[in-house]
Every structure is written in structure tokens, then in C-alpha cells.
């Protein structure tokens, strides 16, 4: 603290510089940005509001340093702030769920391209809903639709329910705790799933942010990474309405294998969509033989 600093406060620029250096030494890829995001979170503002501040009180600085230490241990930033952006929403996140990623928005983009008429989708199912990001984003885009989200984790199901309330969609969806589609008898216009798809032996090679903090049950796809796709593709036969679409997220290089699993279960590949990195990320299927 400089001699002319007001008592109990600290220069914000110095705090950011020191925090950036600390995160950089810990191997965080965007240390300055993350330091500023954490600081904005502690101060109850955003990055724009941070520009209007030049001091931070000691009590808040201590909170910031505690979060900074956790980030330096590669605890994900979104778990520290409790929030993540997806589509046009800000959602609550917790270690009970995967953190929504921009790549997953490819599934929403695929649906919008294939069903541009916003009245064409009335029922949506999201298997393994997690935060509810896919279900809620689709409901935002299709105002006449109702949706159902299913997750094996009670904590994830509760979190998705809270997110539905936060974004004003709790009246248009239900979130239940269940094992994939075992308790579901209805049929849907759209079925989403972002299942676990990392081969079991590859889990230890993931970035520490993911490997050490995100839930393994939402990552581990079995020996070949395809266990959950087998379940989902088998279920689509009794979940899809006529002309309904099944849209699943793909891991890197899994498009051919998952498409083959779909064909074995009577599905026809409608489309394979690539994300911004050029990776085949969304597989779209329907019942084979439909016009």
C-alpha cells in the first residue's frame, strides 16, 4: 500500500498486475482476463464496471486472494464465480455439472437451421441435461415448445430447475432425476443429448481444470467413449415423433462411429455440423425411411 492510499484500501491496478503474474506462473492461459473476471465477481460488477473502480477494500481483497489461490490450482473459473454463459443466457453452474461450452451451441444452431419455423417444435427432451443449457436455449428459440430435462444426478436436476426459474422458463419445462430414458413413455419433436464421451483411458490426459474438478460421471464414456451413445441411439426409436430430430454432441473424431450406431438402431443421418474449430460436433438423426 502506498503512503497516500486511503486506509484499508488497495490500488486496483497493482492488484491486477500481481494476480496476473500469479496466474501466469500457475499456467493459466489467459491470466489477465481471468484475474479481472475474478476481481469483477468479488466487487459485484462486470468488466466494464471494473474500469470505473481504482481501489479495493482489504476485506474484499482477501476474498479475491482466496479465489485466486483456487484458480491457481486449476479450479475452473466458472465454479469459482458460480456462473457461465451459454447462448443468450447466464446460467448457474456447480461441480455437480459440466460447465457449458461454446462448442455445444452447435447443437442449437443445427436445430435452428433444420427447423427455421419457430412453430414447428412443440416438445423437446434433453437427456443428461446438466445445467439445462440445451433445453433452455431451445425453449428460448421456440416459444410454443414445452420441454423435459433428465439427469441422473439429483444435484444436477435441482440446478437445472433453478436455471429454468432464473431465465423465466420454469413454466414451460420439467426437470426430473432419472436414468436416461428409462421412465419416459412420450415422444418428442426434438431429443438432445450431450452424453459422456471421453474414453475411460483418456480421462487422465485431460486438462487439470477438467480432470480434477468436473464430474467424471459426465465425462467417462466407457472403454471406447461410445457407451452412452449406444443407450441414446437405442432410445431414439421410441422417443422421436414422426419427422422428429435427435441431436447429439460428438467428441473429436467420433462422427463416423456414432453415425454407425444410429444406423444400427434404425436411424438415418440428417446432418453433421462442425463447430468453430472445424470439429464435427453435432450429429442430427431421424427415423430411417421418413420423407
CATH architecture annotation of the largest domain: 3-Layer(aba) Sandwich
Backbone structural class: alpha/beta
Reading off the top of the CATH hierarchy, the class of the largest domain is best stated as Alpha Beta
Which of globular, elongated, flat, extended, rod-shaped describes the shape? Answer: elongated
Number of folding domains? 2
- CATH level 3 topology of the largest domain: Rossmann fold
Give a brief rundown of this model:
Residues 114-198 form the Methyltransferase small domain. The protein is of the alpha/beta class and 291 residues long. It folds into two domains: 9-73, Helicase, Ruva Protein, domain 3 (Orthogonal Bundle); 86-287, Rossmann fold (3-Layer(aba) Sandwich), CATH 3.40.50.150.
Secondary structure elements and pairings:
Layout: E1 9-11, H1 12-25, H2 31-43, H3 47-50, E2 55-57, H4 58-72, H5 77-81, E3 83-86, E4 89-92, H6 105-114, E5 123-127, H7 133-141, E6 146-151, H8 154-166, E7 173-177, E8 188-193, H9 208-211, H10 227-239, E9 240-249, H11 255-264, E10 267-274, E11 280-287
Parallel strand pairs: 5-6, 5-8, 6-7, 8-9
Antiparallel strand pairs: 1-2, 3-4, 9-11, 10-11
Helix pairs in contact: 1-2, 1-4, 2-4, 6-7
Structure, described:
The protein is α/β, with parallel strands linked by helices and 291 residues long. The protein folds into two domains: 9-73, Helicase, Ruva Protein, domain 3, CATH 1.10.8; 86-287, Rossmann fold (3-Layer(aba) Sandwich), CATH 3.40.50. It contains eleven helices and eleven strands. The protein has helices at 12-25, 31-43, 47-50, 58-72, 77-81, 105-114, 133-141, 154-166, 208-211, 227-239, 255-264; strands spanning 9-11, 55-57, 83-86, 89-92, 123-127, 146-151, 173-177, 188-193, 240-249, 267-274, 280-287. The strands form three sheets. A seven-stranded mixed sheet has the order 7-6-5-8-9-11-10, sandwiched between helices. A two-stranded antiparallel ribbon has the order 1-2. A hairpin with a 5-residue loop joins β10 and β11 (280-287). α1 crosses α2, α1 packs parallel to α4 and α2 packs across α4 (58-72). The radius of gyration is 21 Å and the shape is elongated. The mean pLDDT is 94. This is Release factor glutamine methyltransferase. Its EC number is 2.1.1.297. Belongs to the protein N5-glutamine methyltransferase family. PrmC subfamily. Substrate binds at residues 194-197.
Amino acid at each position: 500500500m502506498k503512503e497516500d492510499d486511503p486506509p484499508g484500501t488497495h490500488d486496483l491496478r497493482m492488484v491486477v498486475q500481481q494476480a496476473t503474474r500469479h496466474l501466469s506462473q500457475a499456467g493459466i492461459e489467459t491470466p489477465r482476463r481471468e484475474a479481472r473476471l475474478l476481481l469483477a465477481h468479488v466487487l459485484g460488477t462486470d468488466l466494464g464496471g471494473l474500469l470505473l473502480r481504482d481501489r479495493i477494500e482489504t476485506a474484499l481483497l482477501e476474498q479475491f486472494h482466496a479465489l485466486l489461490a483456487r484458480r491457481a490450482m486449476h479450479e475452473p473459473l466458472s465454479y469459482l464465480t458460480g456462473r457461465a454463459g451459454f447462448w443468450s443466457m447466464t446460467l448457474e453452474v456447480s461441480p455437480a455439472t459440466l460447465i457449458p461450452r461454446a462448442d455445444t451451441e452447435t447443437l442449437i444452431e443445427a436445430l435452428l437451421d433444420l427447423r427455421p419455423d419457430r412453430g414447428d417444435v412443440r416438445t423437446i427432451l434433453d437427456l443428461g441435461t446438466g445445467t439445462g443449457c440445451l433445453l433452455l436455449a431451445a425453449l428460448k428459440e421456440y416459444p410454443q415448445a414445452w420441454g423435459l430435462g433428465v439427469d441422473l444426478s439429483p444435484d444436477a436436476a435441482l440446478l437445472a430447475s433453478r436455471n429454468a426459474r432464473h431465465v423465466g422458463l420454469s413454466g414451460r419445462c420439467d426437470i426430473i432425476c432419472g436414468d436416461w430414458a428409462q421412465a419416459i413413455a412420450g415422444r418428442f419433436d426434438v431429443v438432445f443429448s450431450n452424453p459422456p464421451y471421453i474414453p475411460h483411458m483418456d480421462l487422465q490426459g485431460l486438462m487439470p481444470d477438467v480432470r480434477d474438478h468436473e464430474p467424471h460421471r459426465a465425462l467417462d464414456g466407457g472403454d471406447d467413449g461410445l457407451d452412452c451413445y449406444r443407450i441414446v441411439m437405442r432410445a431414439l426409436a421410441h422417443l422421436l415423433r414422426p419427422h422428429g430430430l435427435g441431436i447429439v454432441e460428438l467428441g473429436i473424431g467420433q462422427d463416423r462411429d456414432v453415425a454407425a450406431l444410429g444406423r444400427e438402431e434404425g436411424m438415418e443421418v440428417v446432418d453433421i455440423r462442425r463447430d468453430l474449430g472445424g470439429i464435427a460436433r453435432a450429429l442430427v438423426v431421424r427415423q430411417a425411411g421418413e420423407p
